[in-house]
Predict the structure.
Amino acid sequence: MPLTFERKLPIILFFVFLMLTTVGVLFYQNTISLQDAIAWQRHSQEVVARVDETVGLAFEIQMSMTNFMLISNESYLTPFERAKPKIRQNIDRLRVLTADNADQLAEVNRIDQVLKEYNGEVARKIDVRKMGGPDVAGTELVWSEGKTMLDQIRASGERVKAIQVQSQQARDQRGDRRFTITVWVLIVSSLAGIISLGLANLTVLSEIRKRRAAQTKLLEVNEGLERNVEQRTVELKDANERLVEIGHERESILSSEKEARREAEIANRLRDEFMASVSHELRTPLNSILGWARLMKGGTLDENQSEKALTTIIKNSETQNRLIEDLLDVARVISGKLQLEMVDIDAAEVVSQAIETVRPAANAKKVRIELTENVSTSAIVSGDHDRLVQIFTNLLGNALKFSHDNSTIHVSVETISDAVVTKIRDEGKGISPEFLPMVFERFRQDVTNKSNNGGLGLGLAIVRNLVEMHHGSVRAESSGENKGATFTVSLPLNKPTHRDESILEL
Ligand code: ADP
């Protein structure tokens, strides 16, 4: 399993630390050894110097004694006197310096022993010379033992020095070996340290590269995540908006359903009312007809009464006929069987015919009908003659029904642009603003209008249907109750014949 950076780096640094510690320890040891070596060098030099000086002093003593013997001058004894303490000093010091080496120490002791004897003999000879004069000088100077002693001193001194040199050389060799080993250890440690540092450097660099790559990858992943989050946010927003839309759609479906249900309920109610009205409207004139017919059959009526009975029977029959006609028209429209015989017709003439149809009834109510024509010579429309007359008769009939006695119905026919516009304005009951929008709907009657009798609420629905089958339009206006009403029919001028089959829903 490859080592992780966190484990590898401390191991490498530990190696570096180990190498540096080794180098440090070796340096320390070497410094100590060097100090030792220098101390031993000084030590050896001092041993050699003190041995040489001691041997030299022995010879100075011999020279001093010889000179005094020959010349007997006290001043020649000065070197002898000076040498004695120095020799003592050197011997003491040499004992200390050679304490670690028994052979050397033995030789030093020997030098000391011989020198003591030599100095004692020299002192005795000097005394003899002082007392015996020049004659004793010759005999005293012949002293072969003195020479032997001096040779012994020199020989011992040489041995001390030789031992010292030998030991110094051995130390030097050991020092050289240690130095060589130290140098190699240093080279190896330094190389190992450098390699370890290089490794550490490579490890750190590779880790930095790895971490940079990981960081870049992380940044990319982050950016990707951010993009994803943005995309998801947009999608969520869209989904949310869609949900809100669905909510609205549901609400609108619900409200349309409610509206449809309400309309269905209204339609059902209107149908029920219609059935009741139809029965009532049909039964009322029939009752009147039946009543008068029975009276006539009884033969009890005089001439005047018979006349009135016949008039009433005829009027009620006409009313009933109209009702049945209306019902049949509606049935035709619903079953799609209402067909138009389209021909070119003078619109003003059709309106005049309709006026003449309602004129007797208007006269009976003392209602005037005023016709204003402002038509071009070519006020020709394409239409079914009888159905056009029916449209205007219905509108005029309503105007008359809701007009007060002695009032006027204003009828105008004019060509406006490419249409013939017919307006029928009465001064009667008017239409309430609430009922006005529904005035053309089937079975609709303004129940608040007291003049509203003898109808089924089908007339205007039939009118709108017929007008639209003629590709025209019809609209109702009223300024309110008792302010009259105006119905405007607009039919297209001189259109090609539409013998159609265009059946519109009421
Ligand atoms: P109906 O055959 O019962 O009269 P219509 O469809 O012709 O039915 O008329 C529907 C309703 O419109 C009437 O019951 C009446 O309330 C109103 N209406 C129609 N024409 C007029 C008018 N000229 N003045 C006032 N109200 C009118």
